[in-house]
Amino acid sequence: MRVIWLAAAGAAGLWLIYLFLVAPKWRGKRKRMQALLGRAYAHRGLHGGEVPENSLTAFRLAAEKGYGIELDVHMTADGSLAVHHDDSLLRMCGVDRLIRETPMKEISALRLKDSNETVPTLEGALAVIGGRVPLIVELKSSPDRKSLAEKVSRVMRNYPGIWCMESFDPRLVMWFRRHDRQVPRGQLACDLARLPGNQRKGFQYWAAARLLMNFLSRPDFVAYGFESDRNLSFRMMRALFHPVLAAWTVRSQADFDRLKARYDLQIFESFLP
Q1: Backbone dihedral region of 230: left (phi > 0), alpha (psi from -120 to 50 degrees) or beta?
Q2: What is the Cα–Cα distance from 17 to 14, expressed in whole angstroms?
Q3: Which pTM does this prediction carry?
Q4: What does the domain layout of the chain look like in residue ranges?
Q5: Alpha-carbon torsion (196, 41, 188, 92), positive or negative
Q6: In this structure, which CATH number among 3.90.950.20, 3.30.470.20, 3.30.470.10, 3.20.20.190 belongs to the domain 27-268?
Q7: What does the pLDDT look like over 87-128, one tens digit per residue?
Q8: Which residue among 1, 5, 57, 74 has the highest number of C-beta atoms inside a 10 angstrom radius?
């Protein structure tokens, strides 16, 4: 009998630890997110055809049509904030260099794909958007996370519109939890092992997919790759804590309509909702 009691106590302890790890922000998260909910967010702006992603034209078009905007921010070698998705400039600019190792002056001289567009600074993107629509600002992980978070926080104070931050790196989300608490914060995640052709496996990917780092960031919302949201841990977190959820990246009207029942906001590309 004692063994049974010990086993039950151990199981209960593990369950409590799990709940502590995956829980999002305890209270007030939906109220803090209210102005951002029920919106469609253009993934890297409204891009396609001759309009490259994360370009000033893509941001202008999205704002003119009234869509929210999701954009990505890196810190350059000279401490500037560049709006660009990849760590490398190769795919978009044809130069095999890391953004964090390249000064903004050199980055600004490059062109995005075959267009006349250049990699914008965060300040330049904000000037074009002009507070017209809500923003989701994704911070890309950096060796100097503190400086990146501080710079983004400082620049975004001048944005006259509604915005939130998100990151795959829970330490960046945690920085905002500790130092800029009025900004709604989101934890990005997906289950890489469940995506077709993806071989990224191991504890770090398993833990990230199951949001076991939420205890660091206590996010106001969870932005999850909807194509991989069928793992048990994600379902349990959703059922137990009713978190605010953002779906990414939605690429069809059929998926957009289907996901309305499960997600509070959606990040889209390749079509107009």
Answers
A1: alpha
A2: 5
A3: 0.93
A4: 27-268
A5: positive
A6: 3.20.20.190
A7: 999 999 999 999 999 999 999 999 999 899 999 999 999 999
A8: 74
